[in-house]
Design brief:
single chain, mainly alpha, two-stranded antiparallel sheet, 5 strands
């Protein structure tokens, strides 16, 4: 069972709304695809939604959230990268995330009748791409208990889960459906691509989130080490402490199998 299936199983009318939302915005999501890059539209947002569900379900925290909070989380996963597929008239030179939020608030009436959750979704997705300190600062400005007609929402918690779920989509599924030629990429994009080729996915082990990776070549291993350092030092600190506070898995660990490329440390010794 995934997040949308769970919502539908608990409330059929809310299930219809969430499925209609994903169908309605599918063309915008597909325009996020960038040939020759590491973007992949619908496959990415579906994976972010799945990661968010796995974080909650794996920690046995489903009962901590109302159905409307889960509805908003699913919509946020779906729309967090909207601005990559929107026409310029919706962006107004906004930074990534803010453009998506502006679309949500301007166009909510055409998305669904009485889509009052749009303002909450806007707050969540506007934060998802912020660097560590800025994310922490802006998160502190979000109401801990944001009120809508359906009840009080834990928006800070939802924003942290969305950002963590987005960071965790750094595996091979991020690039599997694109089929780009990595040799035509610039150096940084190529390294990102090779690192993602090496990561097969993640799993939960108690409080740990374990990213599994099998680099095929020394170049893959080097790219993976760079990816590991970037995530551990630049991205994950934004969510680690908060995930711990919410009793969600928070300790990120890379499990790297060097059986294919060979142990780099041993190769250095033999030179």
């Amino acid at each position: 069972m995934d997040l949308r299936q769970y919502i539908e199983s608990q409330d059929n009318s809310l299930g219809i709304r969430i499925n209609n939302f994903w169908k309605y915005v599918a063309p915008i999501i597909e325009r996020q695809n960038r040939q020759g890059s590491n973007e992949n539209g619908y496959a990415h947002v579906e994976k972010v939604e799945q990661n968010a569900w796995l974080l909650i379900e794996g920690a046995k925290k489903i009962s901590d959230f109302s159905l409307h909070e889960l509805f908003i989380l699913s919509c946020s996963a779906c729309s967090h990268d909207f601005d990559k597929g929107l026409q310029k008239k919706f962006l107004d030179e906004a930074r990534h995330g803010e453009g998506a939020g502006k679309f949500m608030t301007k166009e909510y009436k055409s998305l669904q009748f009485d889509f009052h959750e749009a303002v909450a979704i806007m707050k969540i997705i506007s934060l998802h791409d912020l660097p560590n300190e800025e994310f922490q600062n802006e998160l502190g400005k979000v109401d801990r208990n944001f009120t809508l007609p359906d009840g009080t929402l834990k928006l800070q918690q939802l924003a942290v889960i969305l950002k963590a779920a987005d960071i965790l989509h750094t595996d091979s599924s991020r690039i599997a459906r694109i089929g780009v030629d990595a040799s035509d990429m610039n150096n940084n994009e190529r390294k990102k691509h090779l690192a993602r080729e090496s990561i097969s996915g993640w799993r939960i082990d108690g409080s740990r989130i374990i990213l599994n990776a099998i680099p095929e070549t020394q170049e893959h291993f080097s790219a993976l080490q760079g990816c590991k350092k970037y995530i551990e030092e630049k991205e994950w600190p934004a969510v680690e402490e908060k995930l711990s506070d919410y009793s969600l898995p928070y300790d990120l660990y890379f499990e790297i199998d060097t059986s294919i490329c060979g142990d780099p440390s041993e190769q250095k010794k033999n030179k």
